[in-house]
Design a protein that fits this description.
This protein is α+β, with helices and mostly antiparallel strands. The protein is built from 11 helices and 13 strands. Helices cover 40% and strands 22% of the residues. The strands form 3 sheets. The protein has a 6-stranded mixed sheet, sandwiched between helices. A hairpin with a 4-residue loop joins strand 4 (57-62) and strand 5 (67-72). The site of alpha-D-galactopyranose has 11 residues, from helix 5.
């Protein structure tokens, strides 16, 4: 990494920072409703090798996107930078917006989080950049505040109205654990997560169907939730619990608002249930909770697509205990929980189902809960 940096910029880097991608076990489209999420960090990460520059210039090189950009920090403004460069540039802008005196940087971006697969490569890039810039400019920013700054950059500079889950996962996850995050209070609990101890494997199926959060569909879901909350007179859909669901549904004026609300309310309850099963050492019983989440995302939230539904159906018919889409939806990845001896058969069955449907071949890997962002050199 440092040889690469020297080659690009003809100087030595000051260090390398790494931040991981994530998958979410359960709690989908709940984070912008003040609800619960349960992500794990992946071993896949984005690295940023960097040095500070005192002339106010940002020179960015991406090995992942195979691109180069040069910007003046004084000129950074929302909407002015597009492409991958908006993520690191947005972080520098956000730091300056919040009053930190951060100037220029030379930065080489690399890593192995597949971009566009719904595994949060952009959040990983934001978090690695934020950590590098904070260290290099002596800004006291870590943990939850660093995640919130990265999310602010994505909302305000890049223009994606995401919740805080991806950035929080990239910063706060720890190896061997799932991160239970209450997005209202930002309280976190590290829940031990070791499927292998129960003879189980968490398989990730990357459908390779492109997922696009910038599209209006994500923002539209968000607006529906805000509208439902305001009709119900609550701050967020988090404030409706399953016992009050029927009354809430009866008060909503359209089938669409009822369906969106039903998803969010039941999904929050599923996170709580899943965590209870995990804590009790009965993960095998949590399979149906995962599948119920997928059904709800497919039928009530309408964020799945044929590739995601095909992967879930094929995994279940190959003996998975449960399976669901993970992340924003409209493409991206499915997770399947299955007895370890069934993994090979499941991969074959999913590939065959994709071939029969005329979809591109999916990629698969096993998810191991890994550490959050840190300095690595
Ligand atoms: C995307 C967003 C997250 C979250 C998920 C859905 O990954 O970035 O904030 O809303 O979708 O759970």
């Amino acid at each position: 990494m440092s040889a690469d940096f020297r080659h690009e910029f003809e100087r030595s880097p000051a260090g390398t920072w790494a931040a991981p991608g994530r998958i979410n076990l359960i709690g989908e489209h709940t984070d912008y409703n003040d609800g619960f999420v349960l992500p794990i960090a992946l071993p896949h990460q984005v690295t940023v090798t960097a040095a500070r520059r005192d002339d106010g210039t940002l020179r960015l090189v991406s090995r992942q996107a195979d691109g180069r950009a040069e910007l003046r920090v004084d000129d950074l403004a929302p909407g002015r930078v597009d492409s991958w460069a908006a993520y690191p540039a947005g972080v520098v802008w956000a730091l300056r917006q919040q009053g930190h005196s951060v100037g220029g940087l030379d930065l080489v971006i690399d890593g192995d989080v597949p971009p566009g697969a719904g595994l949060s490569s952009s959040a990983a890039l934001e978090c690695a950049t934020a950590m590098a810039a904070a260290d290099l400019y002596d800004v006291d920013l870590a943990g939850r505040r660093l995640a919130e700054l990265a999310r602010y950059a994505e909302n305000e500079f890049v223009g994606v109205p995401c919740g805080v889950m991806d950035q929080a996962a990239s910063v706060l996850c720890t190896a061997g654990h799932a991160l239970l995050l209450d997005t209202r209070t930002m309280a976190t609990t590290q829940v031990p997560f070791d499927p292998a101890a129960e003879g189980l494997t968490l398989l990730v199926i990357d459908t390779r169907a492109p997922h696009r959060l910038v599209d209006g569909a994500y923002a539209a879901r968000r607006r529906s939730c805000e509208c439902a909350a305001s009709v119900l007179g609550v701050a967020a859909l988090r404030d409706v619990d399953v016992d009050g669901l029927d009354a809430a549904l009866a008060a909503l004026p359209s089938a669409e608002l009822r369906a969106r609300t039903r998803h969010v309310v039941t999904e929050n309850a599923r996170v709580v249930r899943f965590v209870a099963l995990l804590r009790a050492g009965t993960l095998a019983e949590a399979g149906p909770v995962l599948t119920a989440s997928h059904t709800s995302l497919r039928d009530d939230y309408e964020v799945t697509c044929p590739e995601l539904d095909t992967a879930v159906d094929a995994a279940l018919s190959a003996g998975a205990l449960g399976a669901r889409m993970t992340g924003g939806g409209f493409g991206g990845c499915v997770i399947a929980l299955l007895p370890s001896e069934r993994v090979a058969g499941c991969v074959t069955e999913v590939r065959q189902a994709f071939e029969r449907s005329g979809f591109a071949a999916p990629a698969t890997f096993t998810a191991t809960p890994s550490d959050g962002a840190r300095r690595v050199a």
